[in-house]
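fold-stage: in
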Amino acid sequence: MASLSRIAEGLKGSRGRVGLTRLNIISYLLLIAGVGLGFGVAAGWHNNRWAIAAGWTQGWVAAMSPQIAQQWERAVVLRLGKYTGLRGPGLFWIIPGIDKVSSWIDQRIITTGFAAEQTLTSDTVPVNVDAVLFWMVYDPEKAALEVQDYKVAVSWAAQTALRDIIGRTPLTILLRGREQIEAQLQELIDERSNPWGVTVQSVEMRDVIIPESLQDAMSREAQAAREKEARIILGQAEVEIAHLFARAASSYEHNPTALHLRAMNILYEGLKEKGALMLVPSTAVESMGLGGLVGAAAMRQQALSQEPAASGSVNGTAAGKGMQGVSKAAASELDRAAQADL
């Protein structure tokens, strides 16, 4: 319905410019001169009404003779119904009653909107497509003589070409390959409109509307594809991490001191925060001699958690001695662990 209304508007506008003689400033001057001459003659003939009527007729006929075409326009002139040529731009003259300006052809680039509503693609999906056509008249003679109304003809040709392209194109290509569809549309419309003296500059697809149910299905499909890609990336990351761990294990295999230092660093990072819980396998404790280190770290953590909130001189002194004792115990355990490793 929208496309039909646009075509009707174009037809109404074209009727306003077809077969009409334009009046201009020169026409008005000639009309005034003819009427003035008629009044002058009538005054000399004692107000003869026939002289006044003759003046009006002469002025009106003279006013119809001069015509002015704009820079972008060409006037198609017929003499006694036969094509005599194009006139314009600028001032030109015709013989009233014998010559007739049948059409005013606009040679600027014209934009025409057209649409295909509820059109089935090649995979039977109904879609609504809106597009814009940019075209111009390169041969005014053909546009005036070969087709009744070139604007309406171009609009219908564009709409039928769009339906034809959609009918033989799957939905995926229609959504992703807009440039390809636009090139095919331009070629097809240009082929149909060239005999009318019209050439197509470009075709732009504004919007492709698909049913809401299909939009939901496509959204779920895209989400599933993204989740699949995320899982694949996560698996590849796990494989790379495993390779790096294997290289690290081969480095620690012949250097137990480095392995112990790394273990102590891991424990320190895990236990330096209050309330932290670190699970260490028993095999690691036995193989690396981490029993004393783990005990010292646990005593340190317990002392920090049981430290009273209130401050006092006696309590402060006792807490200081307790901390010194724990620190000494932890230091001695670290020394014994280091000597055992050496």
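fold-stage: in (second)
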Amino acid sequence: MVNEFVFAPDSDLLTLPRLKYAFFSAILLITLVLVRGAVQAQTPAEPSPITVTPSPMETVQPSPSESPYVVDGVRDTMAYSVGRSLRINGTVKDGAIALGGDVIIQGNVEGDVAAIGGSVIQMGGARIGGDVMVVGGAYRHADEKPLRREGAQTIMYAGYEQELRNIMRNPTDLLAPTWSAAYLGFRLLAILFWFVVSLALTAAMPGTISRGIERLQLNSLRVAVIGFVGALVIGVLVPSLHYLPFAIGLILGLMALLLILIAGLFGRVIIYAATGRWLQRKFLKAGRNSESVALLLGTSFWIILSSLPYVWPFVVAVVLVTSLGLALTARYRVGWRRQEA
């Protein structure tokens, strides 16, 4: 019996094997990069051995224009391909994964099989010994009852197949987004969204925002260093959670996620407000300063800066690190002010 679903709620993600852990990490990374909302998926109404039922045999054939990486014979390590499909004619003992292509199995895979931006295609007589995981594609097989291990699972995230395939095959496109009317519209929408959020938080908690701006102006280097150390700690902590008991790992993971969300929200607003005030002092006449204008200037400045090709990853990193520093230093109010002469 093969279990098949969109996501396994009972699975302990902190104890997954190496391929599964990397697979779910890739899902998280791609979701953050795309920022396209939740993907749409289908769950079968009743247990079935397949997610997508190919009627004619031709539907499980790979595209003739593909030039896949072929694995023949016996391979003890994991088989993988980046930017093209992966065809397995022999035996792979440690799983297989394709990024930006299909996994075409004509032989035997004893471990798990995963595809991001492609499909898993199981030809007639082929065998998969582990689970099947697909993002942006489908699981197809030629046999009515595919050769699978008893109790094996199929995990699918449907949607955005072409986008994911393009990203995996041309990763530099992420650094140089295509300028179009839709892209400019999204950028303008981002400016409007963060301007409204900044106005709301500044009106609701003016003292918190003002103290954050003061810390940032008095000692921005210390804030950045603390934020950088905090980012390193979180980066080391998250991959280490699977060594801890599930309950402790879950609590620590939620705490780290909450810290990132709070820092990303309040830190951005503080950075936008501080930048807007600095721009007002530099380019606007004295006596015409306005908090709303400062927020609009700061928001527009950082959104435009984060839209520039090949520059935006560094801008996002700077904002994230500074935001973490502001969140981690929020409790220390004494000692941040300059000593009066």
